[in-house]
Backbone:
């Protein structure tokens, strides 16, 4: 009887978790109605389709146009505190990262070869 109660309790608890997870991306931002920003990463460039966005959900679509696996980061203004990241983007592939951003200044970075500080730029949210 105890095992049966545990299973029922676990099923009931999981029912509460599923709806809240479905509304968000894997990085915590809501992909519905997000501002879209395209990112192109190469060995020597990190080009964003926009360097600003309104506060709220921002969906970065990172395309690896280079020949090495890359990563993409959004840092707080200090350039060291990670707000969100997406890793292991192989050559010729794309990955989405949706994140909720409050008004402020952020730093973005592509890391070709998945090493070092990366190629950085400012990103403003108003």
Residues:
């Amino acid at each position: 009887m105890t095992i049966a109660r545990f299973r029922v309790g676990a099923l009931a608890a999981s029912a509460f978790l599923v709806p809240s997870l479905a509304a968000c991306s894997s990085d915590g931002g809501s992909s519905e109605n997000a501002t879209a920003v395209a990112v192109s990463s190469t060995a020597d460039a990190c080009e964003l389709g926009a360097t600003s966005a309104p506060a709220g959900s921002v969906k970065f679509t990172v395309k690896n146009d280079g020949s090495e696996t890359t990563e993409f980061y959004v840092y707080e203004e200090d350039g060291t505190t990670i707000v969100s990241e997406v890793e292991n983007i192989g050559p010729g592939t794309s990955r989405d990262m949706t994140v909720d951003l409050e008004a402020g200044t952020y730093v973005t970075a592509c890391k070709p070869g998945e090493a070092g500080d990366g190629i950085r730029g400012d990103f403003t949210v108003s």
In short: Confidence is low (pLDDT under 50) at residues 1-27.
